[in-house]
Write a structure and sequence with these properties.
Blueprint: H1 6-9, H2 18-49, H3 56-69, H4 72-81, H5 100-134
């Protein structure tokens, strides 16, 4: 994990329709970022659930390690909304529980990401088929 950059996802191949190329590249990039973020969150949840209730220091270490593996686009969003890795005030003694509203986004993000990767593949296949017809 850790994510690809836009430049690594951008396809410089033989598209003749640059709008379609851009759509395929964007789908690939967003799909990879979303899918990896969803998988990362699910792994984070597994790790947090094994912690003792008051183990805030390991919770913080787990959170930091998870953020380091988060794809860049998603990591920037997380940092914007929750830059601090310490426990929020009033949550002491709950190191083994995570934010349920954020947790609910993990599986849909994974599915959305994989769906976008599929869209990218379909666009690539379409370009290959239509380019073969032109030759």
């Amino acid at each position: 994990m850790g994510g690809l950059t836009w430049e690594q996802c951008a396809n410089t191949g033989g598209y003749t329709n640059y709008g379609q190329q851009s759509a395929a590249d964007l789908a690939k990039f967003l799909g990879q970022q979303s899918a990896d973020a969803g998988v990362g969150r699910l792994r984070y949840l597994e790790a947090v659930r094994t912690l003792e209730r008051g183990d805030s220091s390991n919770r913080k270490a787990t959170k930091i390690a998870s953020r380091e593996k988060t794809p860049p686009m998603i990591a920037k969003l997380i940092e914007a909304f929750r830059p601090n890795t310490d426990a929020p005030p009033g949550t002491g003694g709950t190191a083994n529980r995570s934010n349920s509203s954020v947790d609910k986004l993990a599986t849909p993000a994974k599915i959305f990401g994989r769906s976008l990767a599929g869209v990218s593949l379909i666009l690539d296949i379409h370009e290959i088929v239509t380019s073969l017809r032109r030759t």
